[in-house]
Amino acid sequence: MYRLIKTEGTARRGELATVHGMVQTPGFMNVATAGAIKGAVSAYDLMELGCQVQLCNTYHLHLRPGDETVKRLGGIRKFTGWQGPVLTDSGGFQVFSLAKLRDIREEGVTFSSHIDGRKIFMGPEESMRIQSNLGSTIAMAFDECVENPAEYEYAKMSCARTARWLERCKAEMARLNREEGTLNPNQMLFGINQGCTYHDLRIEHMKRIAEMGLDGYGIGGLAVGETAGEMYSVIEAIEPHMPKDKIRYLMGVGTPANLLEAVRRGVDLFDCVMPTRNARHGHAFTMEGCRNMLNAKYVLDEAPLDETCDCPVCRRFTRAYIHHLFKAGEMLAMRLTVMHNLYFYNHLLAKIRDALDEGRFEAFYKENIETVGRRI
């Protein structure tokens, strides 16, 4: 259950109570696609980095090691060692982005595995069953992720189908949660708003899925090629139509500046691979901007990645050492920078929560929006 504690403008401060613990919002979820953070970071590391929620991928875990295997091993939390809430996304995005051949019908989608080419069928019921086997805290509804830009008529038809699929997801989850042997009979369901960048489709779809009384609502299909301005415009268009008493999740977003802008527009929850992916290429996020640790200027730099940061990496290692590790091709370079970036993202959201608690979010936004988005 989501509780809205206070607001400042459209920005919201709240908390989400789950069977696996409380999530303070606005909050960031850490992407552990196949049950681990890329960059040799484990669930136990996440606890030290201030992480609240681990996000795992239904599609990837279904293909390998198999959701039935994970269930036999006690579920995704026991399997990975993560003790807090876990959100599993539905697999929809991966079906549409990774599968080379796919056939979309009302029943669901038949596609070829990107691993070995074998034919797989996934629809609303299959996605719910896989996520139930994983035993996640929150399951995302199975939706169609449309290419951007998309023709208006196709986007309209897709929105209607996604809404029908959502009704099937809700019915199947209710059935699974009543079944004997279900790992998490309190599993929550979030619906997903679609409609590309067409405001009328977005609003109509949001109104329709809001009537279904779900546990939360995602905003999908953004950060896929449209401009930041278009993304913010879509959020502004649908925000008035999102239930005030339900959590709002902007999927797959984004940069530190994106987080500030989206919180300001009423978003509660985020996930993104950016802090980990960029870290593996030597980019460290700080309150002053993004540092490229491959740059020669760090050869003799004995300062930490971020002099205002209290993460385990900044307490122990210098820029010079991390620069050397990247140049030497050492895996430790990626691990340390990933850990720092995850700490940075989670603590940026903690600073935002503090600012909202103290009624100074707008001042915090103005003070940091330019600097967090720049390259040093």
From TrEMBL:
Self-association state and partner proteins as the record states: Homodimer. Within each dimer, one monomer is responsible for RNA recognition and catalysis, while the other monomer binds to the replacement base PreQ1.
GO biological process: tRNA queuosine(34) biosynthetic process
Record's protein name: Queuine tRNA-ribosyltransferase
Region (RNA binding): 252-258, 276-280
Entries under Pfam families matching the protein: TGT (PF01702)
Residues forming the catalytic site: 89 (proton acceptor), 271 (nucleophile)
Organism: Acutalibacter muris
Keyword tRNA processing: yes
Cofactor remark from the record: Binds 1 zinc ion per subunit.
Pathway in which the depicted protein is active: tRNA modification; tRNA-queuosine biosynthesis
